[in-house]
Write a structure and sequence with these properties.
The chain is mostly helical and about 55 residues long. It is flat, with a radius of gyration of 13 Å.
């Protein structure tokens, strides 16, 4: 879901490719830390909230 948002922002010119690449690399680094389960559960909760609207 977040990947689709990044693609739309890059295509729309709101975010440049370099910035999107930096965010992607940061996300991959963050996923390897102990915070990954917490982040995943928060994103799942947010997705559930959005889908219920």
């Amino acid at each position: 879901m977040l990947g689709i948002i990044v693609i739309v922002l890059v295509k729309g010119g709101c975010v440049r490719v370099g910035s999107a690449l930096a965010c992607t690399l940061f996300g991959c680094t963050l996923a390897a830390t102990g915070l990954a389960p917490t982040i995943n559960s928060r994103l799942a909760s947010l997705a559930g909230l959005i889908s219920s609207l």
